[in-house]
Design a protein that fits this description.
heterotrimer, A alpha+beta (about 160), B alpha+beta (about 775), C alpha+beta (about 280), B: Aldehyde Oxidoreductase, domain 4, Aldehyde Oxidoreductase, domain 4, 18 helices, globular, C: about 280 residues, alpha+beta, Uridine Diphospho-n-acetylenolpyruvylglucosamine Reductase, domain 3, Enolase-like, domain 1, about 35% helix, FAD-bd_PCMH_sub2 (chain C), oxidoreductase activity (chain C), FAD binding (chain C), oxidoreductase (chain C), FAD-bd_PCMH-like_sf (chain C)
Chain lengths: ~160, ~775, ~280
């Protein structure tokens, strides 16, 4: 049996999809669930534009099989209802073509939620998971650092 | 900044597309998925140069779900934007590793890819050329046996048959003998770098279908929707009006999406399946290697100057590596010649710029169009000259900065409008980075901090008839629809154009609805969104359309207000009397005809239309290069500060700075973003991006894990400032600015590292191993 | 996109995994074990490998253990690299694997996957080679414990087709010893290594191991001996180490052989400067 039906919770809603075992989670999110926010920048785990959260952890959706997401909780950019990061990116002009943005937003969200005390080295480490070819990273770095400071100051 | 009182121009108005992008709501080309669309997959060449002896499609054709497989036999005619030298699918031979050999069209992606993997090709290897200098030699083996028979699509391409030279551009200005005689000091240096890539994060993608009445529908992530229309029309003999190209927001381009490749392939694939919609999307590997790249260069520069530091003569020999096909390489080798001297006054110039074929992936436009390449070479040479003359590098540049009244290498007369202020940029840069000379500061832990500078200039090589148009329609609420075919690739053009209209109409940005997607059926014709020309061309078109609309508004308004059109002004959604603004009529009451109180209507719809075309551009004389290649020269100065570790030859990028003469900055925040963007791209290219080839021309690093780019932790801080010398015929004085951040980075970085390492660095990328090699006196 | 199809099973015990392996193999199927899967997906989509069956090991409880008992640090083979860095039971290990790939990738890459990687680097192996760790291997005859140095032959960990690593066991006494590691690349931090050097203080002596010099991770007792020759200067020791290298250092697109040698020398000196300062 090389295909199967699996069930996963995506953005808070239970979804049933019929997948090839060989399909990546990215392919299923985009082609079957219409969640095209995660992007196929390389399909090889190198660029981070397909970043999603699984049980709160950032993962490259192109680098995991859809069947591995069975019974897990997936959050995509479409389901990120806490829009603090998006709003900060808007305020700081932290995007140009926008293609890397969903991946960055989700990775930054996970960083701030999981490691509010991250120092500069750790911030760099997280951000190095995502490639941006337009901005040069300055506005993205500033956005994340400002939000971390705010999180530490105000909780 | 200019003292004018603008309401919208010159202000940090938020990007019109920022929310959709931040929230991930944008549908890029491949985010639109329709059931029933067939998928195309490529089988590409594993050889860099070989005859195709046989293609066995048997096993592939048996895969269930396969509708068609096409090869070069199905369309054995070469295409190309300048020289039509490239078969869309390899025909009879392959000329680069990764060249498409067959296209499978199937129901599903995995079936198409499976079938493509079952195609068997028999090759007969041919000699491989990887150096443009070697390939340019008289007795080099030929990559294009039919060079000379190819159709020339544009003027200014001088191919040399029976060689590997696709284009030769000559500059002969002044008197070289006199120039060398006047030189007290000369320097001569060689430079080289191989091809690199654009690496836009969205890979190229096209959907194509042919309707029953023959209309061709193309959906493409392209910088040039009308250009795609033109190319398909020319090469497949279809009326342009029957080709519709649609482009939504584009996920990065950097010049790599300015030409036509996948569209040809997807069209052929659709034709092979009776016109059904076919989707062709590049994998990252295909986007890097199969699709066109950023060209390489091998060059020799010789400069002469008086002891006082005045440049007297310059000689340039360029061998641009355009790869297997010339595409826009032929344009970039020309552009490199046109601006070869950099923004310096040099009266005696001799340049031979060759566009040379090699058996490497073929090149198309890359941000800066030949200028990052020529600037690296020239600016490094300037620092070498400064050292020999014992003059401060910044002072040397100031001494020789080109000014109104001087001429360019192609002898265009420069004035205060068509040339930005180079000296002002250099002086401002000096302050911005606190330049106190060529110093090396040693830090407490033994690292060396240095700054390197570069100046730059560029004119846009637009075709002599490049145009843009704008149509304005009004809604019943008085808001305006702005329709223009500029493609939003991240540069913020949709925002800037909206600002220009807002300024002209004195209308709130929120009352302007700009069409974000481009559709050639509904939008006015526009040259591709390249060459930093869109603000100029489309901006002027927007203003012309606005003036047209204002004229109409005043005509009808005069009827409504019982006065003359000349008595009226337009602003804030109103048409009002200049001397008594309390007499007004709302635009919304004029937009779809004005109704008298008794019900009679007059006026009809307000429809604004305007366009702009570049003027007075001429081709270059084939022997001297004399001619006017572009409308204006944007200029600037840049610097890079690094911290270098002499123990292991590694370095950190600390700061990158740009001072640009923008004419008039329309949107400061967007402009700063553009400068940072360019600096990042230029530094990533200069410090680490390059394809690695083995001796068989196979690309060893066709993935982002091994094709190195700068990530967040290694990006510098960016400093940006502007000078504003208005371009008289630019919109509100604005010059094009999109590309420029890239141009001087390689020069500035190599200068900074050369000061730090105390050797002269002449190759890219500037890796620790290369620096180690040079310091320790080894060749390769 | 992976164009071939395969069956996917997720056993909940090592025995079940072995059973499944045997069953499928008996039916003539090609079977592969699956950890984080990142390497599998990368290679499969490029047509470098093909399989009929994938056995996902991540549901096996023994493979998910991460704890210290009285004697040993027990690391389950399917723990991700990020798990190991965050818990930081073995600082040298954390420090080395923190430099592999990107953080988001490390959220998926498993330590077992890295040890069995097809790529020449397998940097995760270095700390275990130095610490003389043991591997708990699932075999037909039950869980077998072997020293990593025994199963690591020549260039990789050699197991029978049906065997897989369940856990890595490391003597608690050594995990907190002084250490040094450095990863040098062609330019960017995120890239394959030209050289990864890892060193661990084991009793009086420093042990040092390398990835990137050859097509496999490398440790040699003779080199350790030279490194610990307190009577000679750092530079002289390093020269001797170079002479002891068993084969010529590789030349590839990341670096030339000569440059790698230079990098090796400077990293060794840096390591000695760091570690001798600690031990003396």
């Amino acid at each position: 049996m090389t295909k199967q039906e699996i069930s996963m919770t995506v953005n808070g809603m239970e979804k049933e999809v019929f997948v090839r075992n060989a399909d990546t989670l990215l392919h299923i999110l985009r082609a079957q669930l219409g969640l095209t926010g995660a992007k196929p920048g390389c399909n090889n785990g190198d660029c981070g534009s397909c970043t999603i959260l699984m049980d709160g952890k950032p993962l490259n959706a192109c680098h995991m099989l859809a069947v591995e997401a069975s019974n897990k909780h997936i959050t995509t950019i479409e389901g990120l209802t806490d829009t603090t990061i998006q709003d900060k990116f808007i305020q700081k002009w932290a995007l140009q073509c926008g293609y890397c943005t969903p991946g960055f937003v989700l990775n930054c969200y996970a960083l701030i939620e999981n490691e509010p005390n991250a120092n500069d080295v750790e911030v760099d480490e997280w951000l190095d998971s995502n490639i941006c070819r337009c901005t040069g990273y300055q506005e993205i770095k500033e956005s994340v650092k400002e939000l971390l400071r705010a999180r530490r100051a105000y909780g | 900044m200019n003292q004018k009182n603008f309401t919208y121009v010159g202000k940090d108005i938020q990007r019109v597309d920022i929310e959709d992008k931040a929230y991930g709501r944008v549908k890029y080309t491949d985010d639109v998925m329709e059931p029933g669309v067939l998928i195309a997959a490529l089988h590409t060449s594993t050889h860099a140069h070989a005859k195709i002896k046989n293609i066995n499609l048997e096993k592939a054709a048996q895969v269930s779900g396969v509708h068609a497989i096409i090869t070069g036999e199905d369309f054995p005619y070469p295409v190309g934007p300048m020289l039509a030298d490239r078969p869309p699918i390899a025909y009879e031979k392959v000329r680069y590793f990764g060249e498409p050999i067959a296209v499978v069209v199937a129901d599903k992606e995995h079936l198409a890819k499976y079938a493509a993997s079952l195609i068997e090709v028999q090759y007969e290897p041919l000699p491989i050329l990887q150096s443009p200098r070697e390939a340019a030699k008289k007795d080099a083996s030929l990559i294009h046996e039919h060079l000379g028979k190819y159709t020339t699509m544009v003027e200014g391409v001088h191919a040399i048959p029976k060689t590997n030279i696709a284009n030769l551009t000559k500059i002969r200005k002044g008197n070289m003998e006199k120039g060398w005689e006047e030189s007290d000091i000369t320097i001569e240096a060689n430079f080289s770098f191989g091809p690199a890539d654009h690496v836009a994060l969205e890979t190229r993608v096209v959907r194509a279908e042919i309707l029953h009445d023959g209309r061709v529908m193309i959906y493409s992530s392209t910088q040039g929707p009308f250009y795609v229309q033109k190319m398909l029309s020319e090469f497949f003999n279809i009326d342009a009006g029957k080709i519709s190209v649609q482009t939504p927001l584009v996920g990065g381009a950097f010049g790599g999406k300015g030409c036509v490749q996948l569209e040809f392939t997807a069209f052929l694939a659709s034709r092979a399946v009776g016109g059904r919609m076919v989707r062709l999307v590049n994998t990252r590997e295909e986007d890097l290697v199969t699709s066109p790249v950023h060209l390489g260069l091998e060059a020799t520069v010789k400069l002469g100057a008086t002891r006082a530091g005045k440049l007297t003569a310059a000689q340039y020999e360029y061998y641009f590596n355009t790869g297997a096909y010339s595409d826009m390489g032929a344009g970039m080798s020309k552009a490199g010649a046109v601006d070869c001297t950099g923004p310096f006054k040099i009266e005696n110039v001799h340049t031979d710029s060759h566009c040379v074929y090699t058996n490497q992936p073929y090149a198309t436009s890359f941000r800066g169009f030949g200028h990052p390449e020529l600037t690296f070479v020239m600016e490094r040479a300037m620092d070498q000259l400064a050292k020999k003359l014992k003059i401060d590098p910044l002072e040397l540049r100031l001494m020789n900065a080109i000014k109104p009244g001087d001429t360019t290498p192609t002898q265009v007369h420069l004035n205060a409008s068509n040339l930005g202020d180079v000296s002002a940029c250099l002086r401002k840069l000096k302050q911005l980075i606190n330049w106190t000379g060529e110093e090396r500061t040693i830090t407490r832990d033994g690292k060396i901090k240095t700054k390197g500078i570069s100046s730059f200039w560029k004119t846009s090589s637009t075709p002599p008839n490049a145009t843009a148009g704008t149509i304005l329609t009004f809604n019943t609420d008085g808001s305006v629809n702005l329709n223009c075919a500029a493609v939003e690739i991240g540069q913020g053009t949709k925002t800037v154009l909206t600002q220009i209209l807002a300024e002209k109409l004195q209308l709130d940005m929120k009352k302007i609805h700009i069409t974000v997607e481009v559709n050639t059926q509904y939008d006015p014709h526009q040259w591709k969104t390249v060459a930093s020309s869109t603000t100029y061309l489309a901006g002027r078109a927007v203003m012309a359309a606005a003036e047209d609309a204002i004229f109409q508004l005043k005509q009808v308004g005069a009827v409504a207000l019982k006065c003359l059109p000349a008595d009226l002004e337009v602003g804030n959604g109103l048409v009002y009397m200049k001397d008594s603004p309390e007499f007004y009529v709302k635009i919304k009451d004029l937009a779809t005809a004005y109704k008298y109180p008794n019900g009679n209507s007059v006026g009809g719809l307000i429809l604004g239309a305007g366009s702009h075309v570049v003027r007075h551009l001429t081709p270059l004389d084939p022997e001297t290069g004399f001619g006017k290649p572009g409308p204006q020269w944007t200029v600037g100065a840049q610097a890079v500060e690094i911290e270098y570790d002499p123990k292991d030859y590694t370095y950190k990028l600390l700061k990158a700075a740009t001072v640009l003469d923008a004419g008039q900055v329309i949107n400061p925040k967007a402009a700063i973003g553009q400068m940072r963007s360019g600096m990042y791209l230029g530094l990533s290219w200069a410090s680490r991006e390059q394809f690695m080839f083995d001796q068989d021309g196979v690309v060893l690093n066709p993935q982002l894990r091994s094709y190195d780019t700068i990530r967040a932790s290694e990006a510098p801080d960016y400093l940006v400032d502007f000078v504003e010398t208005p371009l008289v015929d630019g919109p509100y004085g604005a010059r094009g600015i999109g590309e420029y951040g890239v141009i001087g980075m390689a020069g500035a970085l190599s200068n900074s590292l050369s000061i730090a390492s105390q050797v002269s660095l002449h190759e890219l990328p500037l890796t620790p191993e290369y620096i180690w090699q040079t310091v320790n006196g080894g060749g390769k | 996109m992976i164009h071939f199809d395969f069956e996917y099973v997720k056993p909940s015990s090592a025995e079940e995994a072995l059973q499944l392996f045997e069953q499928f193999t008996a039916n003539g199927k090609k079977v592969m074990y699956y950890g984080g899967g990142t390497e599998f997906i990368s290679r499969a989509r490029m047509n470098e490998i093909m399989t009929d069956v994938v056995i996902d090991l991540k549901a096996i409880p023994a493979c998910n253990v991460l704890e210290e008992n009285t004697e040993e640090l027990v690391i389950g083979a399917t723990k991700t690299l990020t798990d190991l860095v965050e818990t930081n039971f073995f600082p040298l290990l954390s420090s080395v694997i923190r430099l592999i790939a990107t953080r988001t990738e490390r959220n998926k890459i498993t330590i077992g996957g890295n040890l069995m990687s097809n790529l020449p680097y397998k940097e995760g192996i270095l700390p275990f080679l130095l610490a003389d760790s043991k591997l708990a291997i699932a075999t037909k005859k039950g869980i077998k414990k072997e020293k990593i140095t025994t199963v690591f032959e020549e260039d990789k960990i050699r197991l029978k087709e049906e065997e897989f690593i369940v856990q890595i066991l490391t003597d608690k006494k050594v995990v907190n010893q002084a250490f040094f590691n450095e990863k040098k690349t062609k330019q960017s931090k995120v890239n394959y290594p030209i050289l990864t050097l890892a060193a661990l203080q084991m009793e009086e002596n420093i042990k040092v191991a390398f990835s990137g010099l050859y097509e496999f991770p490398f440790h040699s007792k003779e080199i350790d001996k030279q490194v610990n020759d307190h009577k000679t200067s750092f530079d002289k020791r390093v020269e001797k180490v170079i002479k002891l290298l068993p084969a010529s250092i590789i030349d590839d697109m990341h670096a030339s052989s000569k440059y790698r040698q230079f990098v090796l020398k400077s990293s060794l000196v840096k390591m000695l400067e760091n570690m001798e300062a600690v031990s003396s």
